[in-house]
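Translate structure to sequence.
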């Protein structure tokens, strides 16, 4: 079930969109990269960890700022077109 719980500004949306696209790109790159290239693989893993932390920090910061409703085992998602935040249960 999805429930509308808030909205962010377009600037805030742009931050999470950039992190979302970067994280997805790094995940795809990690899938196709062979372990023969240890240096590149380690850089991707490190960047993926840093990007994932920034991604989670954005959600924590915005949920605190806007005081979005939350539930145990639920998660938020954003509609990038409308900047609306939904709670999934």
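Result:
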């Amino acid at each position: 079930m999805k429930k509308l719980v808030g909205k962010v500004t377009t600037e805030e949306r742009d931050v999470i969109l950039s992190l979302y696209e970067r994280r997805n790109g790094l995940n795809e790159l990690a899938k196709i990269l062979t372990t023969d290239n240890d240096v590149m693989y380690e850089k991707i893993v490190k960047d993926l960890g840093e990007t994932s932390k920034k991604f989670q920090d954005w959600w924590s910061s915005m949920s605190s700022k806007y005081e979005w409703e939350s539930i145990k085992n639920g998660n938020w998602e954003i509609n990038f077109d409308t900047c609306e935040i939904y709670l999934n249960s």
